[in-house]
Fold this protein.
Amino acid sequence: MENSQPPPTPDPQKFPIPVDSEHKATEFRLFSAAAPHMRAFHLAWFSFFCCFVSSFAAPPLLPVIRDNLDLTATDIGNAGIAAVSGAVFARIVMGTACDLFGPRLATASLILATAPVVFCTAVINSAVSFLLVRFFTGFSLATFVSTQFWMSSMFSSPVVGTANGVSGGWGNLGGGATQLIMPLVYSLIHSIGAVKFTAWRIAFFIPGLMQTFSAFAVFFLGQDLPDGNFANLKKTGAKSKDSFKNVLYHAVTNYRGWVLALTYGYCFGVELTIDNIIAQYFYDRFNVNLHTAGIIAASFGLCNIFSRPGGGILSDVVAKRFGMRGRLWTLWVVQSLGGLFCVLLGRVNSLSGSIAVMLVFSVFCQAACGLTFGVVPFVSRRSLGIISGMAGGGGNVGAVLTQVIFFRGSRFQTETGITLMGVMILCCTLPIALIHFPQWGGMFCGPSSKGATEEDYYMSEWSSVEKEKGFHQGSLKFADNSIRERGRRVEPAPSPSDETPPAHV
């Protein structure tokens, strides 16, 4: 049903958290589980956390799996690449699914589709089957896109960076937690009496069960938007049925999404690479035992409990004074520092020094991820899901390319690969300077001299026919709520109105 004017939506006073005109929360209350905003937050980060545990359950047990399946260094490298490459297109598809069907259904469906693969890991018997289960399990990492879409749909401009940063960071925490969980589970099963080549197989039932449980929690307890689920809102006419062709067009023609996909490839992509190689790196180079290597590797991922959230919070704090330009500058500085410490990590020869540098590097690398998704929600209102998918997919592409170039086979020693990866971070962070919003400016240039407004930018995604039908109402509200991205440099802008003509951006 398509109405020119959407029916009334719930009174803002009925929400337990203060909201804006789109009913997005303007406060982020971490220790609340209030529906729908904070409940969505907790469901999002926990489901993503479970998928991360499943996707990286194998690396901490690689020394045992390697002996059981007679894996070569090339086999292990190929499997690591497969684990992150599976989510490249899955993330773009997930973004589209979020735009068209909502994050709740998209998340639950993908998790349930990939959970059986996790259980199948227990019966693999060759290098090929090991590669296949890692490839298909990696599809579940696309839940990152639905997590960020969900948070951007539930939280307003002043706190969206924080919500995205904390949900993404706590989800990524699974990459560190699994370095502790899997060796512990394996040791317990082995101590009970199972031989080691059986114990690691049984251990994979734990991440499989966690993932399955999270899918049902999202489906039955979650809600797509503050005012309800996509399906119900479309039936009542409160949300228009958008065209996939138009949503895709406005995503792929916005160069800002492509730049963020590239730069995200060398913060999150690097994080995925480290998750795959770091336990084995310390095990082989410094001759530590499996348990110790797991603890060291876990410390890298566990920094996500504060580092990625810190990046999101920093993005929001800087934006209050400097607007979007502050978000972009902070992202460039933090990610470049991460690149410098990555270079240093590959050149430190002592165990204690490597651990110290790795921890500092992890903070900057993961904070850059949070800072990136402080910018992503503003690239497009209409195509938010696909833009999020493009950026998220870029992270996986970066991981694939990095592992193919530096960590596949014996072309480079691992420490040399880490140093060269740091150089790649520095180079691939530079394009952030190309991002320019006509209404806010960029790193080196201010707003357009033509006086572009937030309404001009977001209305350019809608045709005159679509606006006559009222499909643009959500973008109008978003434009009004995004005026804060100007920072404190100018006086308040006039509120958007329906009559303002669209500008081509």
